[in-house]
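Troubleshooting: if your tokenizer reports a length mismatch, compare your output against this known-good record of 157 residues.
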Amino acid sequence: MIAHERSFALAKRIPLETIDAAVRSRLGPARVAGNSQPAAFNRQVAMYLAKHVGGWTTTKIGKFYNGRDHSTVCHSIRRVEIMRDDDPELDALLSSMSDDLRNIEPKVPDHDESRASGSLSGPLFDEIFIESLVGRIVDRVVDRLSAQNPRRIARNG
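Known-good structure output:
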């Protein structure tokens, strides 16, 4: 993948916060401590959607969901895939949620409109987008630093 294509793909990624909010509104909270039901199921659904609709890595999904290991995320995704095959209601729910998430429009105001009206008030990007961008920047910096000096990061991390 060419660098500009990669950055375009990242820009189109659905924020984990948006996916979590969609799951919370349809099923209930997913980002809670512990493994009690129904939160564990909701979290598995959110992880499945984050991977298949949002395009996130299992490591990033795990970090978002209270620091869970990527293998836990992989297990959750596999469980949902199996349940989806066996349960037509769950399959319909996941299809509906996937479509809803893919149809969310980014909340970025048109620059020409705000300049034409003489107003620059209001945020240029919404809070979810900024948090997602900052998270990606921090992850890239940590990855580069750890590649340059793995012992230093391990000691200080």
